[in-house]
Amino acid sequence: MTIYLVNLALLVMWAMLLMRSDASYKRGWFVTFATIQWIVLSGFRHITVGDDTAQYKALFLGTEGLPVSALTNDFFKIVFTESEDPGYYLFQRLVQFVITDYQVYLVLIALIFMIPLGYFIYKYSTEPLISFLLFSVLFYEFFAVTGLRQTVATALVVLIGYHFIRAKRIVAFLAILFVALTIHKSALIFLPFYFLADKRLTKPYILGMLGVIAALFAFRGPFFNLLVSLSGYDTYSALDGAGAINFSVMLMTVLLVALWRRDEILQNNPQAIHYFNALFLAACFLPLTFINPSMMRLVQYFTLFLLLMIPEIIKTFERRERVVVYYAAVTLLLLLFLQDAPVYTFFWQ
């Protein structure tokens, strides 16, 4: 827990020091420092940190020495007809021609995710400190210390693919989406966002989406069975007591507050229409988490846009109010982290 607190304290310290400067490059320096900190925490973690770190080490050792042909045979057949994700194993084997140490491999995975995340925040967030604090509280446990396959897939389809969505480069987006889905098939869920990202927030559309969210919650069982059938991940089943209640309340609250202040948000940043539609899609898949917590994997592709939406909401307040809301948000995020901060150790400890 201590090292996480140091990480958060450093984030706040960099922000405060750089805010005293009028230099135009201060934003870039802050994002650089924050990104490096998370690369260190993610890549230098002990094998006991994260639910899947040890399992992925076994997978890493299991592919060592395998001929590449063993991983390319029937590659496309496996992608389209089976539940396996052959792209990840092929990627891992190719990396092993250069990297044979699992700890160094973890650093590589951290670079693959954290550098695009840093650029994503640098390019689009109006408040990088808030964005990194949000990541540190809400998403680090999933993307920084847990599943490697979906971490890589998300870096490709969301953090890189979003640039292609903004540029309306569908061929490039579909290409990177295909690569991502060979690494983790759940990446396919991000495809509808390309076509919905610019959907205007008319009243019929807003009411319609809220109605769809309510309907999907009411019929979450059949919806869950349909998605499991289509995805091929037959290992997922309904679990009693499932439900990310706190996260669900937070997501819906942010979405509703954003809709309340949508005119101000879109006046400040017309491209924020993408964040609204991403959160609508996140809310559509949220009911599935009440069937099986693993369905949060689908929600996470869209909820990364909370890192951009919450700063946009803060920006809509008047200058005096904004300072209060800004520091209240920072304080709340720090308190939320303290409430449920996990144990962390470096690999040498």
UniProtKB/TrEMBL annotation:
Taken from the record, one Pfam family name reads: EpsG
Which residues span the membrane? 102-122, 129-150, 170-197, 204-223, 243-260, 272-292, 298-317, 324-347
> What keywords appear on the UniProt entry?
Membrane, Transmembrane, Transmembrane helix
Q: Which InterPro entries match?
A: EpsG-like
> Signal peptide position in this chain?
none
Protein name, UniProt field = EpsG family protein
